[in-house]
């Protein structure tokens, strides 16, 4: 499943990159703060995000999102890498949306784990900046635990 998702993700990335000139793909870069919880443990961290967006019609915008969120607590550190493909509904400046994909948790000194990711989002678009509140849940493979992340992002559009 992981290999199939990565193949689909890479195909999407290369298709967007190859057609970027003709398809009006817009990019955003930014960061934010988020809270993380899994199995009773929680922490607050910071992250960087990269988003490719394309208007599908006047009401919908598709997006491809990735990034890296870093957390540390009690001397240990870990990071979360989401890879999401989704859609936003555009209603004036408000952009509620949903992303689905794969999320990976990497722990310092250990192997990474990951699984299916679901991320409902609520965005507000200014001229050059998007403000996004999100909740991301990642179902960890071969476990009953989920990684839950809630946060705020500021993305600069160029």
Fold and architecture overview:
- The chain has helices at residues 2-18, 20-23, and strands at 26-38, 41-55, 60-73, 76-89, 94-107, 113-125, 129-139, 146-157.
- The protein has a single domain, classed as Porin, CATH 2.40.160.
- The chain is mainly beta and 158 residues long.
- The mean pLDDT is 86.
- The protein is globular, with a radius of gyration of 16 Å.
- An eight-stranded antiparallel β-barrel has the order 1-2-3-4-5-6-7-8.
- It is built from two helices and eight strands; from the N terminus they run H-H-E-E-E-E-E-E-E-E.
CATH architecture field: Beta Barrel
Largest sheet: 8 strands, antiparallel, barrel
Order of strands in the sheet with most strands: 1-2-3-4-5-6-7-8
The third-level CATH topology is Porin
Radius of gyration: 16 Å
Strand content: over 45%
Number of helices: 2
Roughly what percent helix? 10-25%
Number of domains: 1
Overall average pLDDT: 86
- SS-derived structural category: mainly beta
pLDDT below 50 for ≥5 consecutive residues: which ranges? none
Can you identify the CATH class? Mainly Beta
Would you list the SSEs in sequence order as H and E? Answer: HHEEEEEEEE
Write down how many β-strands occur, each being a DSSP E stretch of 2 or more residues: 8
Task: Determine the N-to-C terminus distance.
Answer: 34 Å
Global morphology: globular
Quick overview:
The protein has 158 residues and is mainly β. Helix content is 13%, strand content 67%. It has one domain: Porin, CATH 2.40.160.
């Amino acid at each position: 499943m992981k290999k199939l998702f990565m193949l689909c993700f890479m195909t999407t990335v290369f298709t967007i990159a190859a057609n970027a000139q003709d398809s009006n793909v817009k990019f955003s870069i930014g960061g934010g703060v988020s809270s993380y919880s899994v199995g009773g443990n929680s922490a607050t961290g910071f992250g960087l995000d990269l988003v490719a967006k394309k208007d599908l019609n006047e009401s919908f915008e598709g997006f491809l999102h990735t990034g890296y969120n870093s957390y540390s607590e009690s001397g240990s550190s870990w990071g979360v890498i989401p890879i999401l493909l989704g859609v936003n509904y555009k209603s004036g400046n408000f952009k509620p949306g949903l992303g689905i994909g794969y999320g990976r948790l990497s722990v310092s000194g250990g192997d990474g784990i990951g699984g299916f990711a679901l991320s409902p989002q609520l965005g507000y678009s200014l001229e050059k900046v998007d403000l996004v509140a999100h909740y991301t849940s990642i179902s960890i493979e071969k476990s009953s635990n989920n990684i839950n992340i809630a946060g705020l992002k500021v993305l600069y559009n160029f």
